[in-house]
Design brief:
The chain is α+β, with helices and mostly antiparallel strands. It has a single domain, classed as Glutaredoxin, CATH 3.40.30. β5 and β6 form a beta hairpin. α3 crosses α6, α4 runs parallel beside α11 and α5 runs antiparallel to α6. The chain is globular. The termini are far apart.
Amino acid sequence: MSRIVSIFALILTSIVGFSSPVMAQSSSAAQAQRADDHVIGSPTAPVRIIEYASYSCPHCAHFQQDVWPIIYSEFVQTGQVNYIVRPMLTQPVQLAGVGVILTECVAEERFFEAVDMLFVEQARIMQTAQEQGDLLSVYNEMASRLGLTEDSFMTCLSDPEMNALVNEKANQAIADGIQGTPSFIINGRILATGTGNVFNWGGEPLLINGEQVPARLDGDTFRRIILHFSNSPQ
């Protein structure tokens, strides 16, 4: 096992298994902005999207690279969308967890840059882990590009309070009703794949112009969804 995975196994032990009991809450409660949320976009935007993502999730990496640029340029920068990213953990949990730690350790103004970098580098991280290579060097390189020194990153990585924060955020995602990644809350209700591989919104089929929306993680689909909610906020 590579050195950094061994480190993660030691410092992130409490994350594995999500041992803390959690109680589910309504998605409308989860919609409210929290003090520790990382937010981009106008606070008065007609559409609020909360994305739950895991830094070890390949579908999340696809969404970040193919869909997020469209959302950002067409809707966040134009004031139509207020966007929040919250973490969830998927296997391998240790690598997902260190991604959370990295994003929490960088300066606030570089949070979304760190998110993007983690997904761009995800394939390299996974391959290095599978080959039992020098993951520590990979993460130190990323931390350096984000303005952290090697010492500051390692101090953050081994901080028990940071470990507790990762665990807390993972359990909070479960309490919010999130079952997989990427998942989204849009204007107070969970957007999820329903029967027939179409999107449900708040447990009911999402209808746009009377038609159900295929559950696709692509730019055209999310553009259509955002325009629907922007033109008729609910």
